[in-house]
From TrEMBL:
One of its GO terms (molecular function) is DNA binding. PROSITE patterns: HTH_CROC1. This is XRE family transcriptional regulator. Residues 18-72 form the HTH cro/C1-type domain. InterPro entries: Cro/C1-type_HTH, Lambda_DNA-bd_dom_sf, ScfR_C. It comes from the Bacteria. Pfam families: HTH_3, ScfRs.
């Protein structure tokens, strides 16, 4: 068991990740030490987590191991962390000993194959649960299905009533008996037609592909993640480039998905037109990508500055570009409607996040920017900036449509100050004694 330390646990495992990556590549310790210009004994201390590492040396080692520095300093990707944490949370209490959730990062770093298998099984389970939930919702709300079932049940009731009369009345008049037989035949044909139409309704959807396991918002998020949330053609051409972007994206044959993707891309194009890349990028680099120093660029629109920072080209191993940013957007009800994931800072796909995030505090104070230091359960610290603003102009007496936006970035090493002990959302958070837990 790891002893308490002011150094977050994820940072403590940097040396272990370096060693695992070196062994996977088949590099000897002396060879790696020579490449990064340090002694093998010093590298040995680093790999056994006896020396802290950061800055230029971490970048040099990451370049030699052909990985991003964040992979060594932060560990497994947030999606893998989410899946492992969700797998642990989904286990029934009768399963046996509780999983060691505080060692998830160690599992992912030392046994990536097994961790990936568990994550894949969790994603499959989640997909099946979403499919079942979608079908259950479909059974309860599909108007075509409800109408067809009503007609089928009505026809069955008519057939049963006619058959009951024929059985209970043996001395019925022959003319009436013939009429009842004709009714039975007509109702049976109607039942056959209704059942065939109902089957055709489901088969028609199967031909277009299964949609229950992949919602429009998931497909749109995948499109944004594939582009790393930066669309150069829209930056230069504006909304005119949206059809070309949608034409190259997967899953846009579904009308609902395409409409949602076009909506978010138009919002992206509007932001790019109001605050062009040629303005925000050099200013952000000069200020160290500090949102507080860039608020004047938004001319009063704080949310615009936060959204644009989340769309800057991402930082590479050479140090060029913006640092990693995460983004969460919610409506006035607190439901997350858009997100950009960030390693070690989990943002739920559905529902709401942690009630302690400044994202939700901003909803109670519209127009007032919020800033906070957040500490996640694994010990990683993040800086967060949030604001709540109306997204549509409202006339006198009209109810404004509000949205809250939160930008998140890893806190620099050694960042001091009181931090909010938050989590990824109550479903996955291991903080059982949190007063805000649902």
């Amino acid at each position: 068991m790891v002893q308490a330390s002011p150094t977050p646990r994820r940072a403590q495992l940097t040396g272990s990740r370096i060693r695992e990556r070196r062994l996977v590549m088949g590099l000897k310790q002396a060879d790696l030490a020579r490449q990064v210009a340090i002694s093998p004994s010093y590298l040995n201390l680093i790999e056994h987590n006896r020396r802290r590492i950061g800055g230029k040396l971490l970048v040099s080692i990451a370049r030699a191991l052909a990985v991003e520095p964040a992979h060594l300093s932060e560990g497994a990707d947030a999606s893998l962390q989410d899946a492992l944490q969700s797998s642990a949370a989904a286990l029934p209490t009768s399963f046996g000993p509780a999983p060691e959730t505080d060692r998830i990062d160690e599992l992912a770093g030392r046994f990536p194959g097994w961790a990936g298998l568990i994550a894949a099984q969790q994603r499959r389970n989640a997909g099946l649960e979403a499919l079942v939930e979608g079908l259950r919702d479909r059974l309860g709300h599909d108007p075509v299905l409800a109408d067809a079932m009503h007609e089928v049940l009505s026809t069955v009731a008519a057939i049963r009533s006619t058959a009951d009369i024929l059985v209970r009345e043996p001395d019925i008049d022959p003319a009436w008996r013939t009429r009842f037989h004709r009714n039975l035949h007509e109702e049976a044909e109607r039942l056959s037609l209704r059942a065939t139409a109902l089957l055709g309704h489901f088969e028609a959807e199967e031909e277009t592909g299964p949609r229950a396991a992949s919602t429009p918002i998931e497909t749109v998020e995948a499109m944004f993640e594939a582009a790393d949330h930066h669309f150069p053609r829209i930056e230069t051409m504006g909304a005119a480039a949206i059809p070309a972007v949608l034409g190259r994206a997967a899953g846009m044959d579904d009308p609902a998905t395409r409409a949602l993707a076009e909506r978010w891309l138009r919002a992206y194009a509007a932001d790019a037109a109001r605050l062009p890349l040629a303005v925000i990028q050099p200013a952000a680099e000069a200020s160290g990508h500090d949102p507080a120093a860039l608020l004047h660029l938004g001319q009063g629109d704080v949310a615009l500055v936060l959204r644009r920072l989340a769309t800057l080209p991402r930082q590479t191993m050479t140090g060029e570009g913006a640092p990693p940013f995460g983004l969460a957007v919610c409506d006035a009800a607190g439901a997350l409607i858009f997100r950009r994931r960030l390693t070690a800072f989990s943002i739920p796909r559905f529902g709401a996040g942690c009630p302690l995030w400044p994202l939700y505090r901003a909803l109670s104070r519209p127009g007032q920017p919020e800033a906070a230091l957040i500490e996640m359960p694994q010990g990683a610290r993040f800086r967060a900036w949030a604001v709540s603003q109306p997204v549509a102009p409202a006339g006198f007496g009209a109810v404004p449509v509000m949205q809250a936006v939160m930008l998140v970035a890893p806190a620099p090493p050694g960042t001091a100050g009181d931090a909010i002990a938050a989590g990824p959302g109550c479903h996955l958070c291991p903080r059982r004694d949190c007063p805000a837990r649902r």
